[in-house]
Amino acid sequence: MMPYIPYNIPFVAVALLMGVSLFIILFKRNLIKIIMGIAIMGAAVNLFVVALGYRAGGVAPIYTSTPEGAMVLPVPQALILTSIVIAVSVIALMLTMVIHTYRHTGDIDAKKSRLLKG
User: Fold this and answer.
1) Cα(43)–Cα(24) distance, rounded to whole angstroms?
2) Is 0.85 topped by the overall pTM?
3) Which fold has domain 8-113?
């Protein structure tokens, strides 16, 4: 038997991760830190979607030996796998843009990157 986990703990974790990521995105000027904030926000959204698919006492949705009782929802888990792949590619693209900005300005400050034109 699994120990009882209150329903609100994952949602509190989502709120904390979102708060930290918003703080980083809004108040930091380093482009790498801003990208880290965006990655944290993506993790918070993933955790939120997985927490919505949770069912108390549910079992893993493996259909080879169908167990008795309710199963957790498999669709949010599949969506999160897709989201992780997309997030990795978007973060790689953003880091490539930061490298390009650093080569042209010599700094990774967000205000200096606005000086780049065409």
Assistant:
1) 14
2) no
3) Helix Hairpins (1.10.287)
